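Lay summary

Proteins are chains of building blocks that fold into shapes. Our project writes down both the chain and a compact code for its shape. Here are two examples, one after the other.
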Amino acid sequence: MIVRDEIQAVTDRIAKRSEKTRAAYLSACRANMRPGPRRKRLSEGNLAHATAACPVLEKTELLGARWPNVGIVTAYNDMLSAHQPFDRFPEIIKTAARQNGATAQVAGGVPAMCDGVTQGQDGMELSLFSRDVIAAGTAIALSHDCFDSVIHLGVCDKIVPGLIIAALRYGYLPQIFAPAGPMPSGIPNPEKARVRQLFAAGEVGRDELLAAEAASYHAPGTCTFYGTANTNQMLMEIMGMQLPGSSFIHPNTPMRDAMTIQTTRRAIEITNMTDAFTPACDVIDERAIVNGLVGLMATGGSTNLTIHLSAIARSAGILINWDDYADVSHIVPLITRVYPNGVSDVNHFHAAGGMAYLIGELIDNGFVHADVTTVAGGEGLVEYTREPILVAEESDIPVSYRAGPTESLDTDVLTSVSEPFRPDGGLALISGNLGRGVMKVSAVKRENWLVEAAAIVIDDQNELIAMHKAGELERDFVAVLRFQGPRANGMPELHKLTPILGLQQDKGFRVALVTDGRMSGASGKVPAAIHLHPEALLGGPLSRVETGDIVRLDPANGMLDVLGADLDARQPAIARLADNLSGLGMNMFAPQRAIASDAESGASTLGDMAFMVQD
């Protein structure tokens, strides 16, 4: 189980770059560790407040005994399909805790917005910053210092990154994630995309479009395409922050409940009141972050993680940049084909062998560090090559583990390193005189990669929609959508443009999108250079592009340039932001927009961490 030299080289480079910040972070975590239970240091008045509403048994144990106390941070609401199942989780966890010599309390709730609801709407401009609100809310929940370990309940796009950013700030505590799982498969994702394009072309009406959408998003659980939410689940598992095999089990099933019970048991077992103490700061190190990068590339995961994983790493004192992503992408083959990289969904991926097969294949071929610390304990990442099975009801242990599959059960969805879908991870670092960004090429047909065409410069995605309706897009073009960065308007996703761009590409036109904003976690078949920085609002080169300039996007060579124009000689355009920042609470987020870091650094509004040291 020796890791490849190329992977080790990236890991060593990250460790060297992070030497001071990581050491300062670990020092801060060690300084906050003390013998449990942690509530012992609270005053009598503090502890009385923390237990006042507890049932008698829990109150007795919290006030006097040495039972560990598990905190629960939940992102439950009943509007998000992926988070609605969490309604039942706290009671399951509390019951399991009592049965295993512990108590559990809901420490706090955090907001969870749905990008699917806000996609293309003004509310999307709050989406990215919601991650840092969630992190801050989690920090408030844990500030009471009553907990010996923490279970996080979250699944979707900004929620898991926000939770783990805060979990790592409290890295001296054991932290474990308990997912809810995906909904059953609905209509095939390509059929949904087809109806969307037909609607964009005016060939079907809203009734047909709504029927297709409702047949796709139809039940409790995560949306089944491989966007940001399901990429989050892969990431938490391959980085060892949740139990093996827990990512893609359906909600409200005996197996899902059993995994939640087992998660509770494990949260109790890894407190500092046992010999198996496993604080989060020991789980997420440079090797775990590289394992996350490898998983992202091997599965063709969401481009949003090129932002979130950078922010997550920084919360553990680890500094990564897009060069690390690009180098790992060059090394690691794509061995998963899930929509939008294919036609199947995550349920097919799970049935084909899922995470157990994927991780086993990566370990056997030296692409991941197996000798890491995980919440599962045992043999490090090797534990994640096993899959859970239900145990008889009369047993005290809800699940046991068996060896996972060593061969894919569906090679159209999950293949091998020796016969990959692509020789690389399908993520390209893009740079040139328009700045620095990323492009997901794994879902883009090779013949559509290179685009050289006249720019159409817009400041609002609705401008391109209006041009489409007016018949003005019947040509090759590069849509340059500027003033969409974190400082401008919170960096919304621009998935609203996907059906139009896809339709024009299907007509034979060469089209692309270039922006300082984000695409959906399901970035698809149209070439899109995204997350560009410096962003336009800060005078970046996007602010100097003019309609008619010839833009060349060449992901094969990692290049993005305006040809034949002296951008430095032009004055930057002035952003027109007043209209879209006045409603839906947008003005409340002006302080966050003013301090947000660039996308490569994680687009963070939390500021430098106390352990970040200066050279």
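And here is the second example, written the same way.
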Amino acid sequence: MRSFFKNVLANIVAIVLLCAVFFVFFIMMMVFSSMGNDKSVSVKKNSVLTINLKTNIMDSPTEEEGGLFNIGDKTKSVLLYDVLEAIKKAKTDDNIKGISIEADDLHAGMTQIDDIRNAIEDFKKSGKFVYAYGNAVSQSAYYLGSVADQYYLNPSGMIELKGLATEVAFFKDFADKYGIGIEVIRHGKFKSAVEPFLRNDISPENKEQLSTLLNDIWKNTSTKMAVSRKIDTAQFRTVVDSLYGMIPELGLKYKLADKLIQKTEYDQMIKSKLSIKEKEKLNKVSLAGYISSYADEDKSGEKVAILYASGGINNGDGYNEIYSEKYIKYIKELQNDDKVKAVVFRINSPGGSANASDEILFELQQLKKKKPLVVSFGDYAASGGYYIAMAADKIYSEPNTLTGSIGVFGVIPYYKDIANKNGIRSDIVATNANSQYYSALNGVTPYGVNLITRSVEGTYKRFVHFVTQNRKQTFEQIDSVGGGRVWSGVRAKQIGLVDELGTLNDAVKFAAQKAGLKSYHVSSYPKRMTPFEQIFKDLNEEDVSARIIKNKIGKANYEILQQITNEKLQSEVKMEMPYQIKIN
């Protein structure tokens, strides 16, 4: 009997403790949820709109990390479209007297900085001031800051203005040395994603496309910086080649900065300009805060929807990238929503799964039958990212968008030699001739290679077919600019791969015009996750381990690790761009 009561008491205690844990967890989630919500900001007179390090500019809501792993992080994430609208609104807002750019580094892509820069140029037409201040300034931050009327640098600061370069690593000798076999099947001499496994040096074709691409992008960005700073282009090249920005006195001498002052002196200078007394506070409003000040305005009525597609393209269901099941659901919702009169599909993707890309394209083609579909390119619209644009009524690209890469490949690793060297061998028992056409220990059979080659070639022909339909060109014309080659947005416009060079805002305006809308508001999809949803998403065991690894080794290294370890990424025919370019 004593044992019975003992067990009952133990169970009661366990239940109470479990309830207490759930109660505490619920309270924690409520606290985190309230922490995640932006408080509405009241914009006072003599305010300055501030772009600083606490602003993470996203191209898509799915880029937001959030959740348990970002608790305590004061960085506010804002959508690019909202940033551009905020700067546009600030232009006519009597309470906003100017813009202060205070970013040593930027959480933003190349085309995003371009758009913000253009928006600030338009803001300057109001006659309001734009100033910038820096300490240890990255190239991307200076690209934005150089648009200012005056650029101020810390006396012990630096500007890392160096131009663009790319470094390609090769693994063929490593694979040969350690007995790792890699079967590569590709279409397109420019499909250089697989080159590191085939060669020990860069191919002439890849060197040509990289050189053209880097020079196109640098010409665009360097010209804008030189014009803004009123520096002769030849002298600007000398300044960059000589890394003069690394020495503050030389940065001042060669007009990269207007004055060397401390941050306190910079703030005091703005206060003086606004006739604010020395002891009074300077009203600085962040982008996130300013956006929240008018976020609750009425948005009922007809809509233009922006469907954001950012990241790699994958089969299945997920949130942080482009997953076919999820995006098919989004597209169908937009297709059936009578309030949505037009859709802008914002693509910022280097590609991925050929199968998932094809599924998404089909659903977009069905959407286009019911309402206008306009595509806007961000930093990347390459390979599968370009493929899913082929349902568009019109395609807008940024000048620096990396686009095209019309090509297909498959990479199949195997470990026969290294296994044999270490005394590992295998025998196969099968029911059919090709039951084991691929084995990690024995590689791909000749018949398997032939079959996969046919699959790659068939996928390439299907890719080009959809491009010919959308771009109204012949197979031969598209094939001549395809072959896996990546182009800048400027070149893509010249060769007919896109319709216009323009921003996301331009795409929205055209979509509204095509739908015959005079009054409308813009709605973003997918919706940003609530703090609740972020927390529960983070509790997924696989996601927790992935985030821990990503935080330890960095996002770029984690993406490389995924390519090596993720079976889904290795087993599919891929439409993917071989590299990324960032102005760091």
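What can we say about the second shape? The mean pLDDT is 83.
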